[in-house]
Write a structure and sequence with these properties.
The complex is a heterotrimer of chains A (304), B (442) and C (277).
Chain A (H helix, E strand, L loop, with lengths): L1 H31 L6 H21 L5 H28 L8 H22 L4 E2 L7 E7 L2 E6 H23 L1 H11 L1 H6 L4 H27 L1 E2 L3 H16 L4 H21 L5 H15 L14
Antiparallel strand pairs in A: 1-4, 2-3
Helix pairs in contact in A: 1-5, 1-8, 1-9, 1-10, 2-3, 2-4, 2-8, 2-9, 3-8, 5-6, 5-8, 6-8, 9-10, 9-11, 10-11
Chain B lengths: L4 H9 L3 H22 L2 E5 L5 E5 L1 H33 L3 H28 L4 H26 L8 H18 L3 H23 L4 H21 L1 H4 L5 E2 L18 H5 L6 H26 L2 H11 L1 H6 L4 H27 L1 E2 L6 H14 L4 H17 L7 H15 L7 E2 L11 E2 L9
Antiparallel strand pairs in B: 1-2, 3-4, 5-6
Helix pairs in contact in B: 1-3, 2-3, 5-11, 5-14, 5-15, 5-16, 6-7, 6-8, 6-14, 7-14, 11-12, 11-14, 12-14, 15-16
Chain C lengths: L4 E12 L2 E12 L3 E5 L6 H8 L7 E6 L7 E2 L5 H6 L3 E3 L12 H8 L1 H7 L4 H4 L3 H20 L15 H13 L5 E5 L7 H18 L2 E5 L3 H7 L2 E6 L2 E6 L1 H5 L2 H10 L1 H11 L1
Parallel strand pairs in C: 3-8, 3-9, 6-7, 7-8
Antiparallel strand pairs in C: 1-2, 1-4, 4-5, 9-10
Helix pairs in contact in C: 3-6, 3-7, 6-7, 8-9, 11-12
Classes of the chains: A mainly alpha (304), B mainly alpha (442), C alpha/beta (277).
């Protein structure tokens, strides 16, 4: 039971990270109807920028960890958001009304560009950082097994909750959110009613990338390492999460993220670590077969 | 239909040097922010495991300068192209027919050239190896073309069938001592079987869902290969895979080798030439079968499925079996190619079967112009050949490949050969413009 | 033409969530007759079509098809493609659904898929070019030519279907449905978007199909000139229920029908009344 509780905690933390990435997938899919294959690599870039800015801040003599973390968070969100904007501008916008496969391949190409860009720029080796946030609490201890909740875990979950609150407010209460929902329904009509569709789509990518940057930073805090290849697997899993939750649904993305995080940790804990990704992907296939629109997705009525 | 048309007119109105300069300045500024940390600062794990960093402001400055200059060049080119593009874009019919005639000559010319490659380049082992590589991808492209180009089913996990073929041959030949010619059909059948196994549950999914499930399937196969160490050797792969024989006669220097039997001096090139003709024959088989199938009801049903699935069902076509046959046929050729790959390399490991391979083959198919056999061959030649040009710059290769994919898609979203040839005609076969041809939803 | 009903729909109900698109509808289509299904927009006509052709699974009710050999088939138990293949029910769509990137000829070849599939020995005989396959293919092309000639498109056989003018596409879709060799042909607004001359040509085509092949026809149509001219029987629907049924003359004078049209769409109501005078 204690072991299980510990795994659930770990799963929720991992799930928060997947959920943050999944929101970017689901937003972009909702508004432009494409799988943004480069999104996983945007997450990776976010992790790198968090790492580098952290190093710089520490070396210029900053010591207050909360302040450092706040600056790192803002810097990596800002710069990564610009990456998201640039990717959309270069690789997707020219193909907006093109055939379905062209933007998808362009996105796959962009994914290769980003991951290999950071390989070239920062080297292929894994970049470890010493634990930034240390300490934690022992929730209960039984038979020599302690259920621990580390401070890093708390930071990850709290940051996720706060950012999700801001994000929900942004989508449901602001002009930008309304424009986004309008574009999702009907871009032509939205444009006729004075919505700047190009700008709205750009902002979607910017917000998605900013959330991915948060995920990248959380990943760095929690696992203490980044590498140029981490975007691919994390990206596929986050996309799995988005699909599992019902693509296009924002709460679904978070829910799917948590589900994938829990499945992965529990599978690793009780069955085998080697096959944890196989488990996640198998779940994806099974869900899609029996629940093709995901947990919270709207069913698609076939028009004849 | 071109989305960039209105954009072009609006930019060509503002042609002043100040405009170009301003645009370049903004690009440079964006580049400065993007690259500031990623290029300006280099991190590395130091000798004690502690991360260290050093600055590279020179590199950063030159990258920003390159973006600034590049932006000016691109803008100038775009304005020049925008002025010329309007007249070039609409190709007059006589030119189109001339191109079509020329197109009909390209295929035989390419075939003859391919047949002569081992003769012309007999002493250039590098060219022969490259030729074999290109032909492998031509074959993979033609195989995937059945699924993506004809049936309109998006498959992002094609590499799974390639790996099934390769491992089938490797395991069958090393464990049971079966010869290549027995294993080849078995590898194809096993791959097709896996195609059906995957296809059966997932083919009712549509569009991007199908894409992601096939991707997941490709990853599952790879992960299972990595982790099932007792069978597959895990990450270490399988080595000592038997080389192909000339229908039972080994291509070795031994007394019963082919060279000795023919009474000619042995040369390792014999095997390379044999491999070259082997993959050429396999690729041509794929091509021949595909061309035949297109003219058979099954092939027409595939294309009809790509055009309109609902209409297919209204005409009494069993769309599930139709999709399955497309999937299985494509998978079978992937399996053949995999078996060839295994026998050629003599060693296989999971590293050869990553998502990048699937993406590469898909890029070949899409760049070729969905459904066009010649286009796929040309695209494979261009992609793999182009890829080879960057062999010296090992770490930049994927970067350039990714950029090329993006640029090619923007340049030709419908691929190199943008029209479809009808499968049957009464009077005259007229090429159908790609604007009419659908690309499927499944 | 033998008598009896080819299609009988009994107590058909189709619900989408809380919306009842078709409510307890019963009607029959006579063998060798042309039956028209009319009603204001949103009356549930296309839903009935989709139930008959298997694209929707009815919530409740029975749809029975009785071909000439007398063995009745319960259509609500079959999948869409089986209805076309086994029960020989063919259909067209309100928004034309041709294969736009394939030629007119190819469209008609695809329609003969099942017969050709058997002839090609499930592809294997075809792959080796067996003589039996060759003759079957030739026969299929002849069949397609026959239909292209009949709809006046023989000259455009090699043009992409998507390049044909609208009226030609409508007729090609009917020809494609006929190439499946149906016993019941379901046409969803075949005259929509046609001009008066084309509509008259359509009436002629449908009458000749019935005369030459004895195919029963069920059609949804708003063009009252077509409906009144060729229908043997008319079923009028409104809000998912049948409000009238009978010969064109009876339906035309039915006050309920006129009220339904007046309530829904003035133009159509006038069309109903004018076609009566």
């Amino acid at each position: 039971m204690d072991y299980f509780a510990q795994q659930v905690i770990n799963g929720i933390v991992l799930g928060s990270i997947y959920g943050l990435i999944a929101i970017g997938y689901t937003m972009v899919y909702g508004i432009v109807g494409m799988i943004n294959f480069a999104h996983g690599d945007i997450f990776m870039i976010g992790g790198f920028i968090a790492l580098i800015s952290f190093l710089v801040l520490v070396s210029i003599g900053l010591t207050a960890i909360p302040l450092i973390l706040l600056i790192v968070l803002l810097v990596s969100m800002a710069i990564t958001a610009l990456y998201g904007w640039t990717v959309e501008r270069i690789a997707y916008r020219p193909l907006r009304h093109s055939f379905r496969l062209a933007p998808m391949l362009s996105a796959i190409g962009m994914s290769f560009v980003l991951s290999n860009f950071s390989q070239v720029a920062q080297g292929a080796r894994v970049k470890p950082v010493p634990p930034i946030i240390t300490g934690g609490y022992t929730l209960l201890e039984q038979n020599g097994f302690a259920v621990r909740l580390s401070n890093a875990q708390i930071v990850v979950v709290v940051t996720t909750i706060v950012l999700l609150a801001i994000f929900t407010w942004l989508v449901s209460r602001t002009r930008l959110g309304r424009d986004m929902r309008a574009c999702e329904q009907d871009q032509t009509m939205a444009a006729l009613l004075g919505v700047d569709v190009d700008r709205t789509i750009s902002m979607t990518f910017v917000i998605g990338a900013a959330l991915a940057a948060v995920a990248g930073m959380m990943y760095l805090l929690y696992y203490g390492l980044v590498d140029f290849f981490m975007g691919f697997v994390a990206g596929i899993k986050a996309f799995t999460a988005a699909v599992l939750g019902g693509i296009g649904s924002l709460p679904g993305a978070m829910l799917g993220g948590l589900a994938i995080g829990l499945i992965e940790t529990l599978w690793s804990a009780y069955f085998s670590v080697e096959y944890k990704d196989v488990a996640a992907f198998s779940i994806l296939i099974i869900v899609l077969i029996f629940l093709p629109t995901g947990l919270l997705g709207r069913p698609e009525v076939e028009k004849v | 239909m071109t989305a960039s048309a209105p954009e072009r007119t609006s930019t060509s109105r503002a042609t002043g040097a100040a405009f170009i300069f301003k645009k370049a300045l903004i690009s440079a500024l964006v580049a400065l922010v993007l690259f500031s940390l990623m290029i300006g600062i280099r991190t590395e794990a130091g000798p004690t495991g502690q991360l260290i960093y050093w600055t590279r402001f020179g590199d950063l400055a030159s990258m920003v300068a390159i973006v600034f200059g590049g932006s000016i060049v691109v803008e100038l080119l775009r304005q020049w192209w925008g002025a010329a593009g309007t007249t070039i874009r609409v190709i007059p019919p006589p030119v189109q027919t001339t191109l079509a005639v020329a197109g009909r000559l390209v295929a035989p010319a390419l075939l003859i050239f391919a047949l002569l490659v081992p003769v012309i380049f007999y002493h250039q082992r590098y060219i022969l190896d490259l030729g074999i590589l290109v032909l492998t991808y031509v074959m993979l492209g033609w195989g995937l073309n059945i699924v993506v180009g004809l049936a309109g089913l998006l498959d992002l996990g094609y590499v799974a069938f390639y790996s099934v073929g390769a491992y089938s041959y490797a395991l069958l030949s090393t464990n049971f001592d079966l010869s290549f010619w027995v294993c080849l059909p078995l590898a194809g059948i096993l791959a097709a079987f896996w195609g059906v196994l995957l296809g059966f549950p997932v083919l009712r999914l549509r569009g991007d869902y199908l894409a992601i499930v096939t991707l997941a399937f490709g990853e599952i196969i790879r992960l299972v290969i990595i982790n099932w160490q007792s069978l597959t050797g895990g990450p270490n792969g399988i080595s000592g895979i038997p080389r192909p024989t000339f229908f039972g006669i080994p291509l070795t220097a031994s007394d019963n080798g082919l060279a000795a039997k023919l009474g000619i001096p042995f040369s390792p090139t014999h095997r390379i030439v044999f491999l070259f003709y082997l993959i050429l024959a396999l690729a041509l088989l794929t091509n021949w079968v595909t061309i035949r199938l297109r003219r058979l009801p099954i092939g027409r049903a595939w294309e009809a499925l790509r055009e309109d699935e609902v209409a297919c069902r209204a005409l009494g076509i069993n769309t599930t079996t139709t999709k399955l046959t497309a999937f299985a046929t494509g998978a079978m050729f992937g399996g053949f190619a995999g078996a060839f790959f295994a026998t050629r390399q003599g060693f296989i490991s999971p590293e050869s079967f990553t998502f990048q391979e699937s993406a590469l083959v898909l890029a070949i198919v899409v760049l070729g112009g969905m459904g066009s056999q010649l286009g796929v061959a040309l695209a494979a030649l261009a992609m793999i050949g182009g890829f080879e040009l960057f062999r010296g710059l090992e770490q930049f290769r994927m970067l350039v490949f990714g950029l090329a994919m993006v640029l090619l898609m923007i340049w030709r979203p419908r691929g190199l050969i943008g029209h479809r040839a009808p499968t049957v005609f009464l009077k005259q076969s007229q090429a159908i413009s790609s604007d009419l041809v659908k690309e499927g939803h499944g | 033409m033998s008598g009896g009903d080819i299609l009988s729909v009994d107590h058909l109900t189709m619900r989408f969530g809380g919306i009842v698109a078709v409510n307890d509808l019963s009607f029959a289509a006579g063998r060798g007759e042309i039956t028209a299904l009319i009603g204001p927009n949103g009356a549930g006509k296309t839903t009935v079509f989709n139930c008959v052709t298997g694209f929707y699974k009815p919530t409740s009710g029975a749809i029975r098809l009785t071909p000439a050999n007398g063995t009745a088939i319960q259509l609500e138990r079959l999948n869409d493609f089986r209805i076309a293949r086994q029960a020989k029910v063919a259909r067209t769509f309100q928004n034309i659904r041709l294969f736009p990137g394939m030629t007119a000829l190819e469209n008609l070849m695809v329609a003969q898929h099942n017969a050709l599939m058997r002839a090609s020995g499930l592809t294997f005989l075809g792959l080796i070019g067996a003589p039996s396959w060759r003759s079957a293919e030739k026969h299929a092309i002849d069949q397609a030519k026959l239909w292209l000639d009949r709809i006046g498109l023989l000259d455009r056989a090699d043009d992409a279907a998507g390049n044909l003018p609208y009226g030609d596409q409508r007729r090609l879709e009917i020809a494609r449905a006929m190439c499946t060799g149906p016993v019941l042909l379901c046409l969803d607004e075949p005259a929509a978007g046609l001009n008066a001359r084309e509509s008259a040509g359509l009436s002629e085509l449908l009458l000749s199909i019935r005369a030459d092949y004895g195919t029963s026809i069920l059609l949804i149509e708003h063009d009252m000139s077509v409906v009144m001219e060729i229908s043997d029987r008319i079923v009028v629907m409104d809000y998912g229920v049948k409000i009238a049924e009978g010969a064109p003359r009876e339906v035309r004078d039915d006050p309920k029908v006129i009220a339904a049209y007046l309530g829904a769409d003035e133009e159509e109501a006038i069309a109903v009344m004018e076609s009566g005078t």
